[in-house]
TrEMBL record, chain A:
Protein name: Peptidase M14
Signal peptide (UniProt feature, chain positions): 1-21
Keyword Hydrolase: yes
GO cellular component: extracellular space
PANTHER family named among the record's database cross-references: PROTEASE FAMILY M14 CARBOXYPEPTIDASE A,B, SLL0236 PROTEIN
Automatic annotation (TrEMBL), chain B:
UniProt xrefs under SMART domains: Zn_pept
Organism: Sphingobacterium hungaricum
GO molecular-function term, one example from the UniProt record: zinc ion binding
Name the UniProt record assigns to this protein: Peptidase M14
Alphabetized InterPro entries for the sequence: Peptidase_M14
One BP term from GO: proteolysis
Stored Pfam families: Peptidase_M14
Upper lineage: Bacteria, Pseudomonadati, Bacteroidota, Sphingobacteriia, Sphingobacteriales
Signal peptide: 1-19
Amino acid sequence: MKLKSLIILFVLLYTTQFSFAQKEDKAVEEIAGLRAIGSPSNPKVPMNWNRYHDYKQMEQFYKDLQKAYPGLVKYESIGKSYEGRDIFVLTVTDFNSGDANRKPGMWIDGNIHANELQGSEISMYTAWYLAENFQAVPFIKELLKDKVFYIAPTINPDSREYFIYEPNSMHSSRTGRRPFDNDGDGLIAEDLYDDLDGDGNIVMMRRKSKTGRYKVDPENAKRMIIAKAGEQGEYEMLGFEGIDNDGDGLVNEDITGTYDPNRDWGWNWQPNYVQNGALFYPGTLPETQAVKNFVYSHPNIAGAQSYHNYGGMILRGPGAAEDERYYSRKDVQVYDALGNVGAKILPGYDYIVIHKDLYTVYGGEIDYLALTRGIFTFSNELMTTYKLFNQKSGSGFGQSDEYYEFDKLLMFGDAYVDWKEYDHPQFGKIEIGGAKKNYTRNHPGFLLLEDAHRNAAFTIYHAHHLPKLEVLDAAVKPLGGNLFEVNATIWNTRIIPTHSDHDVKNKIERPDHIRLEGADVITGMRVLNSDFNETKEQKYLPQQIEIPTIDGMGAVKVRWIVKGDPKNAKIVVDSHKGGLLSKNLKDI
Amino acid sequence: MKKYHFLFISFLLPALLQAQWKYPSYEQIQNDITQIGKNKFVTQEAIGKSHGGQPISLLKFQNANKNAPTLLLVAGVDGQHPAGTISALHVAKNLLKLSPDSLSKLLDNKSIWILPLANPDAYVRNASAVLQLTSGNARQIDNDRDGRVDEDPAKDLNGDGVISQMRVKSLAGTYKLHSAFSDYLLAVDPSKGEKGIYELYTESIDADKDGLYGEDGASGVNIDRNFTFDYGIFEPETGEYAASEAETKAILDLLYENPQISTVLHFGLQNNLSIAENFDKGKASERIIKSWSSNDAQVSNYVTSIYNETVKPLGEAPKANAGKGNFSSTAYYHAGRFSFVTPSWWVPSVQDTSKQADLPKKAAPNGKVPDDKFVSWVYKNNIEGAILPWTKVNHPDFPNQEVEVGGVVELYKNNPPVDLLEASSELHSNFVIKLVQSMAALEFSQPKITALGNDIFRVEMRVFNTGGMPTYPEIGDKIRHVSKLKTIIELQKSQQFLSGKRLELYPSLAAGKSQDFSWLIKGKGKVEIVVGCPAAGEKTISVTL
């Protein structure tokens, strides 16, 4: 076995060009009995995937991965956040094969909502998995030869850091760090959360009250439940830990941000009275602009995934009902083909539509990618109560007791802050306690690795089905005199077309070009039906036939009439989302 | 001889055209701005840079109070409207012609900020070479979205230095000669059995062979179609998405970061001044609001009455509805400011046409009234270069057809020879002054203090809006980024509220209305009260309990 892998290595070294061979990443030796299927037993970059990472640890991981796999991984900063942190993108592809930026690209980002930490870990895991399995798994090797991944583990680094190191609840720090006057009083960020007990978690406040409607769950002292109709309660709930710092009678109403970075994007953008969380205009935030500029400078991006939490969903657009008209049946079929497989890969996750099954979103990133740029985009809402006991839960977030039971049986009480008394300047004698910020929305450690792999597998499936163009056949036929006819068929062997239907209708991306180079082209045409010689002549620049799209699993035929034997000519297929392909006529 | 004659025309004609149209060069405009900026009442700033790197200049007419409620005048957003820029500069100069006392008084509690050229790239491009006005900034765009940039521009086929019309004699034509003016073509009305003899195009060739003529030239993103309200995605010249352009962002940042701007006036290609905004209950109550609120529409009516009275000598202004992604609509619907727009000059409708019997008296068959107004204005006032005689050209796309170039030079419709802008600008200067004087002005009553005994005090005060307009439009109450009418009371440590809070927000205060405030405070000592809002003025009052 060992000998065999050495032979493979030997062959590899001599079949690739020598200059590249020096950069080629060597296979790590694996012992079959140690390798758990699918995972490296001896990774070059050892990682624990059952924990979260801060900004510094993430950058260290990028450095380590790039150093370990220089032929597969490059990381770069694509811009700065509001507070000046770098927004990093890992480019993962086989750099020794083809031009990375001309391969069909898969964009993955995470953590746009900073409290939704695990999108970053799952993105990082994806990069790590691809690099560490490149030699061991032929499918991955071919994938990275054909495709490129652009992975941005966090596109909101400021607020991630703030969530991790400053007092927050599981819901807070969804925003970024740019301060705005949220309550319209002309002052900025003057009423923040207050970590009253200084434990880094912003939990709930409760006060004993005869008129309160809450009582302690007799089954679990940590849990507050609503008293039954006709039954007297013991407590009133006073919201998240905080005091009224600015004397307006509201607690924590002017925290930093409270805008939503996922309402800052250039598709059907609406102001804050229509869409809460919006700022001045799409791209008010530097983080949005950095990602957007990267997307425009990489027209090869054909698929995208943006990680959120919570709820176990594989979401597709549109965010608003009126934009349903931009999703043709043909495009929906492509989404369905991928989404339904995703639902199988991710037990407990449902494949659904944002505006129908979640809520309306104007100016969201998903719509920007899918509709402004015509990229087939999913957004996974990570973590679901299904994962707690591998079964569908009876009721939704907050009402379910599964979290309390899971804490008791599997976390042994680590998930909650016990209720304790506190003397509050406005509320008087209260008690504070409740779920820690990393519980409920973010995965518990041991579940993180599993979900990381399942989600990575879904993006790999998605990336695999980005267009792959091949010259199926090409033939030269003499027409007499010195004239020749060249016919060629180009096909797309994957599910995703080079242009979505929406893209074709609105001309988002330029058409695909099929060129005949090195021949004296007199005229050129698209062959609509070769059996009945139905053609469409192209008068302008006939050597380069323009094709609106090459459908998934579909083919197009083109024909040129040329002067002179085109024996040295080559066919170039040049598609922004479908890649660049060049074949000599005589080799086909 | 004939050839000689042709040369003569082609050299002389542009000079003649320029001689009457004669808009200043970009350098002259910049020079004007700098000169105005030197006045002691004026500060010149750049609010940002255009896509092409030109500064976007703002002239701030203001007195000591830098935070006074402000009228913002914006022009030159759409590059096809240099007349707006010239008019805005005239307004600036006319303000400086006021006596220092009057100007100082005008600026006592108000400021006027003038942004004369929001889209400098367009001015730079349009002022060079062939006379043709295009809208956008310097961004290279693929206007017809075919993957090629600027491959099919308009082309000056007869070398007269101007882009006019191109007519092609054709059985399939839909245009005919005007009965009185042979240089002017009218669209036929097929429902009346009329037959055309010409096809009409912009002077150009179909360089990319897509059947369209001059559809993709160097014109950039039209800033007045790049704003966020009702943005038209995937339409020509709108950009890739709303507010994609540096100019758009600079103007929006200026609005959002300066809550004292209560009112925006735009010299542009729409008109909600001579014809007021209409309240549409249905559109005003949808989730995405598309009508001014009832109260705001009443303010619009009020301003319209001032406007029509002030500019009466110019005659009736043409109706020009808002389009998609316009600056002016965005300033109201998204930024929450009173927002008015007027072309500031238009083809005069008060023309004595009675003596010219053959002039059309009513709408032309195609219903395009302004066109006929335009024709009569051109001929009556002998506007040279606005409608050109037809000259034959050889056209590669129509090898065996008669092709002529001439007819209407589009740019004259909104941009008359520059000298004609003086009179209209003077009237608009008067309007600017009246509008500033109509803006909300808050007066504050001296607080009334009642001692209730035991160190308990009731503090009451009242604020009046003595202006002609509300503090800010009603829609502003919905918008987080509009700074609201508020009271802030700072107490001493020894004092406490028995009733009331440190901070209270109130809705917009209408003209002639007042708002009462009252607090119960326990404890002696000094109390500081801040009342008002940036858009209408704020005051800090100290009282001792």
